[in-house]
Amino acid sequence: MLIAALIGMAACAFSVGAEEVQMTRLSKITVNTDHLSAYREALAEEVRASMEREPGVLSLYAVFDKDEPTRLTILEIYASRQAYEQHVKSAHFLKYKNSTLHMVKSLELVDVDPLLPELKIK
Fold first, then answer.
1. Which residues pair with 110 in a beta bridge?
2. Do residues 25 and 76 touch, judged by C-beta distance below 8 A?
3. How many whole angstroms separate alpha carbon 31 and alpha carbon 72?
4. Residue 41: phi, psi to the nearest 5?
5. CB of 63 within 8 A of CB of 73?
6. Neighbours of 100 (CB within 10 A)
7. Phi and psi at residue 105, in whole multiples of 5°?
8. What's the rounded Cα separation, in Å, for the pair 74 and 41?
């Protein structure tokens, strides 16, 4: 019975720990040239709202390619998969997504593993 209890406790600890693992993703986006300015404004509004209102959103760092400014990459870091799932259901994200859908030529979502996940962005 003691062994069963220990196995049960270990299983619970593992499942709780698994939920707390950070989720890191790169969003690679190409925007239609005609909508670049409006897209940048909408993205800036969404990033600010997410960082201010959602404690589970640890980073949304968007960078635009200098040689091809319609291409951008967003480094997204979430406290957990659950934080990501809450983020994509938030009103500010849905507003951004729905208002920019027609502006986006391509979108690639790449889940990545950080080399040193314990390091924090300063």
1. 26
2. yes
3. 8
4. -65, -45
5. yes
6. 19
7. -85, -40
8. 15
Find tokens 């040689």 and name the residue: 67
For residue 118, the model assigns a pLDDT of 85
Structure tokens at 30: 């190409």
Mean pLDDT in residue range 2-22: 49
What's the pTM?
0.82
Mean pLDDT computed over 74-88? 97
Mean confidence (pLDDT) of the chain:
88
- Which DSSP letter does residue 3 get? H
Is residue 105 within 8 Å of residue 31, measured between CB atoms?
yes
Alpha carbons 116 and 55: distance in angstroms, whole number: 21
Distance between CA 60 and CA 3 in Å, rounded?
44
Is residue 76 a contact partner of residue 27, using CB atoms and an 8 Å limit? Answer: yes
As a whole number, mean pLDDT of residues 66-93 equals 98
Structure tokens at 108: 């690639």
pLDDT in tens, 14-31: 444 444 789 999 999 999
